[in-house]
Fold this sequence. Notes:
Elements (H helix, E strand, L loop, with lengths): L15 H10 L5 H21 L5 H8 L7 H10 L2 H19 L6 H18 L6
Amino acid sequence: MMHKPSGRHVVQPVNTLVDVRQMNTGHEASPLRKHIRTLLIDVLRYSSAELLTPSHPLVLRMEKEDAYRISSEYLLLLRKTLTAQQTRKLAQDIKIWCRNEYGMSEYSKEERSYIKALTVSFLNQLVPPRPS
């Protein structure tokens, strides 16, 4: 996918580690990254409504969350509310979304890395990794 310069200087891609840190520090994200994050949040929103009920207080709260930033507190409440089976289903939906988005040809290598890092971040908050 070709991006038109917006009059600002063109920034060359940087390594993924920097991108992941920028994702969490409030730096202005590109429109495509905002779109990617919004897509993942939609997966979270619709899967939650399907697993609970559209009128569940947690689902209603999700509607009030910023469409670009889902709080860790919300993910923690979701993790505490869902059964183990529901949590596995939600994690599976997120993994399927990641696989589908990651495979789309219009994303650059950097954008694919962002998709993967974002997915891992969400999954780690929903299903924390077990200590080794």
